[in-house]
Design goal:
The chain is built from 14 helices and 59 strands. By secondary structure, it is mainly β. Among the domains are: 26-125, Macroglobulin (MG2) domain (Immunoglobulin-like, Sandwich); 551-601 and 749-809, S-adenosyl-L-methionine-dependent methyltransferases (Single Sheet); 671-722, Influenza Virus Matrix Protein, Chain A, domain 1, CATH 1.20.91; 725-738 and 810-957, Sandwich (Immunoglobulin-like); 981-1119, Glycosyltransferase (Alpha/alpha barrel), CATH 1.50.10. The strands form 14 sheets. Strands 10, 12, 13, 14, 16 and 17 form a six-stranded mixed β-sheet that branches. Strands 19, 21, 22, 23, 25 and 26 form a six-stranded mixed β-sheet that branches. It is globular.
């Protein structure tokens, strides 16, 4: 394993100091700078340096921007008992906000202290919880049923329950999205204890590809959650192939790369056979193989190895430097020694690199405190972004590839350079990275630094925190610390200093801190400056509680149909969703599974913090940590205007990169030797020889040669595995050495998943508290010979969601049949099916094999009842028994094979369903019809006749057809808004001038305030501008009253005659302004009274006695 040595170079400086003035008690309000709607949030209030009487603090949430509705309220009393600090819980109801996800919406958060009001405009988030989606499998065939389960939790990871008091709904909307993006809406459902189980039936003719289950809270449709599953035609393999390279990258100076191959049957036995391997490179998304790398290697006792040599690459690409940043792939096809089955595997993303390492400073703060220690988090990763473990960093990198180093600082700018020093790599190939850190800005030259002794901690451990103080005053300060996790304040505390410069605190790691948390510490100086620091701490992925699945009576393996005792242990009272899945499903598709890591990755996506810690000044520390801060003396944090910030992503956990697909050959587009070889290894339904098949190759002599070589090799493998068998002339003759065929049981049920059910763990016995309780569920195992993976996901009211480690249960027999059938067969075409005999007894055996007759399937058993063979099989081996059949009719038919061992009780029977389809290929003919009843219809109705574009002469007779219609809304052209919040800012200024000019200038801030209120765009011009706009409206209102006459009318100047137009305009504007500022009702009503009694004539026309002096007002008002 490579070791990584990092040299840290830092340039440091000395700073000057300043003195401070005396300070006063600090009253503080802090909370997340994104308040979630519909869920409980904690607001922190405190008074530092308060020692006298109790202080009652009222917390209010008001609507924005009008501040005329109180949305939530709470109160707390600060006393010496709680050290004059407390977390106050509030909940903002969901019913007072727009459902438009594009609108930015805000509230006022207020803390009313006895002597003052602290207020902050806070952005609201509709991320009121999480929905985690589990499907019973990752892969489905057409016509199958997709089972899904929803787990809905609050940000506190508590099950979502209906709460009428806070207008909180517990229903969710569910959609199924096809690969084409067509949305299939399902009925809304109500959650029960935070869980819902449902299903979706796939059609027989269905789109192949990735589908999605999408769900969202009915009350908060702004946020959706999804899970993917794949639909394809496939047959489960009986064994698994894993590829493990000796290095996750190919260094340009390396001479070779070895890939280890491991092939294991799903029931735990090793595979013997042959592997056919080719390497290549991914170039702009296309595969380019290395023809000279084509190899055949033996697989013995389940293992083999293949080597890519440097000359394999340079034969195709002379200059290997041109391939840097591209990746190598290796494709492997393993054929069993009896030729009965081939399983394909592919490994990608083996990066070609000039340096095997990359260095990141993602977890290092961007700001440091001059004169104090600075924690540098160096992350070293491999080219595939997995952690580089055991690398020397003047110490060692941990399993997560991280090393935390501490350096001393002095200079006004800190430059840090990290460089690898691997003796096996030339100096020009070493990886290096440089970052610059800037000094924390403070007027008083006071600092606080938080130091932690670990870059990653575990649940239940204690974390030692060092608070290092650098103060320029003798006054002792109270240090407040807050802990924030998952966007919520979860802990608070205070430490009273007595002249210390180093304070050590022990913080227990609790479930509320998963998956990561931030510690924020601060104090205020005599000059009323807030000095602060923060640090981000990662918690190792684990459950908040516990869940364990185990066998109640654990033998090494089980036989089909035997009872199995599943013991489930977890949090008392938790609901556990169970499922058992054939491991073969995960061989084909191991993606899209819900794991505990995925749970925390989803939660981390909504982390409101923006940096790994620190900040450029005292307020930036809070803002970057995802908190707002407001106080009576110090400055506050800026307003947050975006839901997301460019927070660093969590480091990638080490995983095995493998994408196993049975349809690999059909996905290749390049026509090179590799494809020709793999085509040659494929079975064909026609009984053509390799020599005849190669005649159809039209891709050149090289391709034909590769095809013939691989085809003949496959043919020889099959021939070697076959042993001459004794074919009985009369199937009705019986041998007393064998068990009667009618007494042989038959395995018929082979579900890919089962046990889709929920159980509830019992509560703790009596009144005694307990950590876990258990429940045992006895279930009969299915007929499959495989490994079942039992998975449990629990949801608890106290410990959230927990995805337990899968329990693997091997089901096998000492002797059994594996009947290999294709996904489908074509009516009237010859087909070879194989019965693979597995004998894991210590003795060789003579086996009688019976193929049972089936109507509409032509075989050697037709008109005989059964076709019988007698074959020899060695101890601890397998062998293939082929049968030729011809299905004569479309539909589903039973293929039944029975086998018995001579002079033994060992026997097995198996029946599988053969799906027969008509001749021809499936053709899809999409049609797009625009529905526009207004313009294209008659009397509001539009009728369209849709005809298939497929000619009738091309249709196979008596075959099914399917018509699928989806109606979607027509996407309108994007129209750019002519009016925006930015343009409104220029309208906010103070009115002035005569009666006409004043009204004109008063109208502009009134229009701006009204528009920005309605569209929630005050953040584009600044929230403080609203008060300015309201003040200008008041000024214009008061100034206009000087042009008001005793009869309620208005004129441009006091001595001019009243203007009907101006009076009407004033009445309209005053009525609009009344929604924002206080306008006396008579000023509006008397103006309208004047117009009716004095200006309106009998014919309805208004006369004008005082013409408008500024004609541009009329034009602009008409335009507006």
């Amino acid at each position: 394993m490579r070791k990584t040595l990092l040299w840290l170079l830092a340039s440091l400086a000395i700073v000057s100091l300043t003195s401070l003035a005396d300070g006063a008690p600090l009253e503080v309000m802090s909370a997340p700078n994104l308040l979630r709607v519909g869920t409980a949030e904690n607001v922190f209030v405190e008074c530092q340096d308060c020692t006298d009487a109790d202080k009652r603090v009222e917390i209010h949430v008001m609507n924005h921007p009008t501040k005329n509705r109180r949305l939530a309220t709470a109160s707390v009393t600060l006393t010496t008992t709680n050290k004059f600090q407390e977390l106050v819980q509030i909940m903002i109801p969901t019913g007072d906000f727009s459902k438009d996800p594009s609108n930015k919406q805000y509230v006022y958060l207020q803390a009313q202290f006895p002597d003052r009001l602290l207020e902050k405009v806070v952005m609201v988030s509709f991320q009121s919880g999480y929905i985690f989606i589990q499907t019973d499998k990752t892969l489905y065939t057409p016509s199958s049923r997709v089972n899904f389960r929803m787990f809905a939790v609050t940000p506190r990871m508590e099950p979502v329950e209906r709460d009428d008091d806070n207008q909180k709904d517990a229903s969710i909307d569910i959609e199924i999205v096809t690969p084409e993006g067509i949305i299939l809406q399902l009925d809304p459902v109500s959650l029960k204890s935070g869980i819902h189980s449902g299903d979706y039936q796939l059609a027989e003719i269905v789109s192949i590809g990735l589908w999605k289950v999408v769900t969202k809270f009915h009350s908060n449709p702004q946020q959706s959650f999804s899970a993917e599953f794949e639909v394809k035609e496939y047959v489960l393999p009986s064994f698994e192939v894993k590829l493990n390279p000796t290095s996750p990258f190919f260094y340009v100076d390396d001479q070779e790369l070895t890939v280890n191959i491991k092939a294991m049957y799903l029931f735990g036995q090793e595979v013997n056979g042959m592997a056919y391997v080719v390497f290549g490179v991914m170039n702009d998304g296309q595969k380019k193989s290395f023809p000279s790398s084509l190899q055949r290697v033996p697989i013995e006792r389940g293992v083999g190895a293949v080597t890519l040599k440097r000359e394999h690459i340079t034969t195709t690409f002379e200059n290997i430097e041109e391939l840097v940043t591209k990746s190598i792939f290796v494709a492997v096809s393993v054929l069993t020694e009896n030729g009965g089955e081939m399983v394909e595997a592919e490994l990608r993303n083996i990066q070609i690199v000039t340096s095997p390492y990359t260095i990141h400073f993602k977890k290092t703060p961007k700001y440091f405190k001059p004169g104090m220690s600075f924690d540098v988090a160096v992350e070293v990763v491999n080219p595939d972004n997995t952690p580089a473990r055991d690398g020397t960093v003047n110490g060692f990198t941990a399993d997560n590839g991280m090393a935390r180093l501490t350096i001393n600082t002095r200079d006004p700018q800190l430059t840090i350079t990290a460089k690898t020093n691997d003796p096996r790599i030339s100096s020009t190939r070493q990886a290096s990275a440089t970052m610059k850190a800037l000094p924390y800005i403070t007027k008083s030259k006071n600092y606080i630094h938080i130091g932690v002794d670990s870059a990653e901690v575990e649940l239940g451990n204690n974390l030692k925190i060092n608070l290092i103080l650098n103060r320029r005053e003798s006054h002792d300060n109270d240090i407040t610390y807050l802990i924030m996790s998952r966007g919520q304040l979860v802990q608070k505390g205070r430490y009273e200093t007595r002249g210390q410069v180093l304070i050590s605190l022990i913080v227990p790691i609790t479930k509320d801190m998963l998956p990561s948390f931030r510690i924020i510490a601060y104090y205020h100086t005599n000059g009323n400056e807030v000095v602060s620091d923060s640090v981000w701490v990662d918690v190792k992925d684990s459950c908040m509680g516990s869940l364990k699945l185990e066998s109640s009576r654990p033998p090494r393996s089980y036989e089909p149909r035997r009872m199995f005792g599943l013991k489930v242990t977890g949090d008392p009272g938790a609901i556990v969703g169970l499922v058992a899945v054939d491991k073969g499903v995960y061989v084909l598709n191991n993606k899209h599974r819900l794991t505990q890591k995925k749970v925390w990755d989803i939660v981390e996506k909504y982390d409101t913090g923006c940096t790994p810690g620190g900040g450029k000044d005292g307020m930036s520390v809070f803002y970057d940590a995802g908190l707002l801060f407001e106080s009576n003396t110090a400055s506050g944090t800026p307003y947050r205007q975006e839901l997301k910030c460019p927070a660093p992503s969590r480091r990638k956990r080490e995983t095995t990169i493998m994408d196993v697909r049975t349809s690999l050959l059909s996905n290749y587009k390049e026509k090179l030797q590799r494809e020709c070889c793999l085509d040659g290894m494929r079975d064909t339904l026609l009984s053509y020889t390799c020599e005849r098949r190669v005649e159809y190759i039209a891709d050149g002599e090289a391709c034909a040669a590769a095809f013939l070589h691989c085809c003949k090799d496959m043919e020889n493998q099959r021939a070697d595995s076959k042993v001459e068998s004794l074919q009985l002339a009369r199937s009705e003759e019986d041998d007393n050495s064998y068990i009667d065929s009618n007494e042989i049981g038959c395995r018929t049920k082979f579900p890919e998943s089962w046990l889709w059910s929920n159980i509830t763990l019992p509560a703790c016995p009596g009144r005694n508290p307990c950590d876990t309780t258990s429940l045992t569920k006895d279930v009969p195992l299915q007929d499959s010979i495989t490994t079942w993976q039992f998975t449990g996901i629990s949801l608890s009211t106290t410990h959230g969601i927990c995805v337990g480690d899968p329990l693997e249960v091997i089901v096998r027999k000492e002797f059994f049949i594996d009947l290999r059938l294709p996904y489908s067969a074509v009516r009237g075409e010859q087909l070879e099916v194989k019965a693979i005999l597995h004998n894991y007894s210590p003795d060789p055996a003579t086996v009688r094999v019976d193929l049972i007759e089936e109507d509409n399937v032509c075989s050697s058993a037709s008109k005989r009842g059964k076709y019988r063979q007698e074959v020899q099989i060695g101890a601890q081996t397998t062998r293939s028994v082929p049968f030729i059949i011809i299905p004569m009719k479309e539909g589903e038919f039973h293929i039944l094979v029975k086998a018995a061992v001579k002079d033994s009780s060992l026997n097995d029977g198996i029946m599988k369903i053969l799906r027969v389809v008509p001749e021809g290929v499936l053709v899809k003919d999409p049609k797009i019809v625009i529905l526009d009843p207004t313009n294209k219809g008659v009397d509001g109705e539009q009728e369209e006749i849709i005809n298939s574009g497929i000619p009738k002469k091309d249709l196979v007779p008596n075959t099914p057809t399917s018509t699928q219609i989806s109606v979607t809304e027509q996407v309108s052209a994007l129209v750019e808004n002519a009016v925006s919040g930015n343009s409104m800012g220029s309208l906010i200024y103070q009115p002035s001038g005569c009666g006409e000019q004043n009204m004109y200038h008063m109208t502009l801030p009134l229009i701006a305030a009204t528009y920005l209120d309605k569209t929630n765009q005050w953040e584009t011009v600044g929230f403080q501008k609203r008060n300015e706009a309201l003040q200008h409206i008041k000024t214009g209102y008061n100034q206009e009253l000087t042009y008001r006459k005793t009869d309620g009318s208005f004129a441009a100047f006091p001595k001019r005659r009243s203007s009907s137009w101006l009076t009407a305009y004033v009445a309209k504007v005053f009525a609009m302004a009344n929604n924002l500022v206080a306008v006396q009702t008579p000023h509006i009503c008397e103006a309208i009274k004047f117009l009716i009694l004095n200006a309106q004539q009998p014919n309805g026309i208004f006369k004008e006695d005082g013409p408008v002096a500024h004609g541009e007002m009329i034009v602009r008002s008409l335009v507006s």
